[in-house]
Design a protein that fits this description.
single chain; 316 residues; alpha+beta; four-stranded mixed β-sheet; 11 helices; 12 strands; 41% helix; 20% strand; Glyas_Fos-R_dOase_dom; VOC_core; VOC domain-containing protein
Length: 316
């Protein structure tokens, strides 16, 4: 069963109001930040933490996480010697999390976040110590909410630092809540953008090459010391002869096991006439189907190995 978490926001509570007053008094509403102002960013971080199911102290710490500055944001709103001022506003437990967040020497601590236990290097004092698990989890959660918000509001930073942030948050996997991990994966996932090539295992490379060249206009290609392929558009089909597959290969390479859908630049009627002229038997179609971009019209046939080939066209 999927994990469910109650969302408990602290926005109507006195600590939220006190934190807002603290931040405004120290200019957070005037400081520029990706997505508007520092204050707007801090509010978004706190709300994200609430959405992820974080407790009140973590939400308040997220709202005030920049109070003492950070290794990446050298604009403290309050001197670390005056911690009691923030503690009076949001409570000692939340302030302790803010101090923990601000004290992080990222160059030393970030590479250790996959370890257990994690030795913490305090940038304020230069001291090192082991951090309790509960504090590490709060730190990781606030870090994820903060950095994902920054990258969501600045495309240049996202391009520059996205891969490093992905690596960091993957290292923090055991420390992050399920909603935080899901948000990380949604924002920073490596996404497939196109098909470069696929592999067909064939009984006879010459027969397959001639079929795809004659029926579908693919261009025979030889590469890599005699390997063979069929090029079309910006993609290609690499050919492996059964019993002589190139390593690495599929677990069960078998001729006739593929089911392909290929787009053609012809109407269904023109395609039928072309296939008839080539002596190709149509197994089914034209029939309506659904392609990656919407409705298509498809004609089905089989290649020399028995692979099912669907030739399709979108409405013009």
């Amino acid at each position: 069963m999927a994990e469910t978490r109650a969302v408990t926001t602290i926005e109507d509570g006195p600590e939220w109001q006190a934190a807002q007053a603290f931040l405004r008094d120290r200019g957070a509403a005037e400081l520029a930040h990706p997505g508007g102002t520092l204050l707007a960013h801090l509010v978004r971080v706190a709300r994200t933490l609430a959405d992820w199911g974080a407790g009140p102290d973590v939400q308040l710490a997220g709202l005030c996480h920049a109070a003492y500055g950070t290794a990446g944001f050298d604009r403290p709103l309050l001197d670390v010697a005056d911690r009691q001022v923030l503690a009076d506003a949001i409570g000692a437990p939340a302030e302790a999390l803010v101090h923990r967040y601000g004290s992080c020497d990222r160059d030393r601590v970030y590479p250790r976040l996959g370890e257990d236990p994690v030795r913490w290097h305090d940038r304020f004092t230069g001291e090192e110590h082991v951090v309790p698990e509960v504090e590490l989890r709060a730190f990781a959660e606030i870090t994820a909410a903060n950095e994902l918000d920054v990258l969501a509001h600045n495309a240049e930073l996202a391009e520059r630092y996205g891969p490093a942030l992905r690596e960091l948050l993957v290292r923090c996997d055991r420390l992050l809540s399920a909603p935080a991990r899901a948000a990380r994966d949604e924002a920073l996932a490596v996404r497939v953008t196109a098909l470069d090539h696929l592999v067909l295992t064939v009984a006879d490379a010459d027969r397959t090459t001639e079929f795809y060249r004659r029926v579908m206009g693919m261009r025979p290609v030889v590469f890599g010391g005699g390997r063979r392929a069929l090029a079309f558009g910006s993609s290609k089909i690499n050919l492996h002869v059964v019993g002589h597959e190139v390593v690495p290969h599929a677990a069960r390479p078998t001729p006739g096991s593929a089911d392909l859908c290929l787009l053609v630049d012809a109407t269904p009627d023109a395609l039928l006439a072309h296939l008839a002229a080539c002596g190709v038997v149509v197994e089914e179609g034209p029939v309506p189907r659904t392609g990656a971009r919407g409705p298509i019209t498809s004609v089905y046939l089989r290649d020399p190995d028995g692979n099912l080939v669907e030739l399709s066209s979108y409405p013009t």
